[in-house]
Amino acid sequence: MQLTIKATGEGAKMLSFLLSKNPQNLYDRVEKGHRVRLTYTVFSDCEVEAVIFVTLDPVELVKNSPDTYEITQYINDREFVVSSIFCSFIRSALGTALNGRPKADYLDWAKHAFQLTIGFGPVATDLSDAVIKQLFETLGYRIEIERGQAAYNFQLKERSSARFINLQAELTVQDALQHLFVLIPVLDNYKHYFIDEREIEKLERYGEGWLANHPLKDLIIKRTLRFRELIDQVGVNVDQADTNNKALTPEPILRSQPVVRLNELRYQRVVKIVENLAARESIVDFGAGEGKLSVRLGFILGVKEILAVEPTEKEQLRALKRFAEASRKDDFISPTPIWGSLFYYDEQLRGKDVMILNEVIEHIEECRLPRVMDTILGSYKPNVLLITTPNVEYNSVYQMDEELRHKDHRFEWTRTEFSKWTDTWAKNYAYAVQLDGIGEEVAGHGHPSQIAIFTRRGDR
Prior knowledge:
Blueprint: E1 2-8, H1 14-19, E2 27-31, E3 34-43, E4 47-55, H2 58-62, H3 84-93, H4 95-98, H5 107-110, E5 114-123, H6 129-137, E6 142-149, E7 159-171, H7 173-188, H8 197-206, H9 217-225, H10 228-233, H11 262-275, E8 282-286, H12 292-297, E9 305-309, H13 313-326, E10 336-338, E11 354-358, H14 369-380, E12 384-390, H15 415-428, E13 431-438, E14 449-456
Parallel strand pairs: 8-9, 8-11, 9-10, 11-12
Antiparallel strand pairs: 1-4, 1-5, 2-3, 3-4, 5-7, 6-7, 12-14, 13-14
């Protein structure tokens, strides 16, 4: 991953003072196992080009990570593409220029607009070329997007998915770096760290003076913050100057009332249903993940056994820690973790009072669902089966760019499709089924999640 900055014209040599890097020395640092180098490939009175090159340590990237034992670590692109990881090195290596704070002798040059040529990449992005161009052209850049040729031994594609971005503009070095610091993570749409309120502060600081009026502001904020609660909080503080260069009142910061996450609403609903069941001694939580729902079930009066079934090892390790912490409290029934799958029959799951599939079925190919339902309703035969799944009709309420809510979803159903599917399986295996919604209802769109409650008829 690399970034090239070239200044041409009068005062081009001042670029080295703004970057605070001596052209006679190679900047070579190792940060957390990752190597960062900066050198000047051209240095003359009227043209200076600096290149920052980062080589990531692939072992360091996955060290102490729950993904250590996952095969995906061998096929990810993080060590090659320009992303939020790269931006963290821009911040540390070029912090002086990013914040516009060179030595006092060069402060005037920090405000000088250079003829800049900037290139960076490779970039892995799901955004179209048209959107990428709008992101930068709005800020006054002339942009060229390059794609490499892909030569495969089999017919896959002729052009590489990775892109290199080349920009030209007349602006200050600080402005250029701040644009990159905000927009590179937007292109990549990946964060290598936990996103919290500090991300809002960075967005407000480096987006000051340009983000508020950007036509793709909503897209930039959405892809930077990701979570609805943070998006509702954000307000970009900008001092907009009028024709007399007098500062106007900054835009107000929007603050929303605390909201309950949809995931929390699903947990609450499932727990409430189980609490009201006459028979609730034994429960199977399929796709238990980190064990958040299983822990809540462990505090329900009358529950004696909870089997938390999960196929992913890293999720089970997190669940074990969660179960151990909850076990310190009184009246808690600790769930039993089971490493299993819906595709493999397990005798110990048979004949339980309640079986729960909370946001599970949409992660399975539709063609494989019949086998899953045959196993559950025909072999396991729970007294009550609870299934929740997204309502695809609600996605337009979220103003989503993507067709599905999560990249791992294989499908998402409308309310009608879910109703027909549940009715078919209820009739096939002598169950009664009741449908309802979870979350805030919007006319014409329904609820964000839908839930089916299957109740077995007669003697098991």
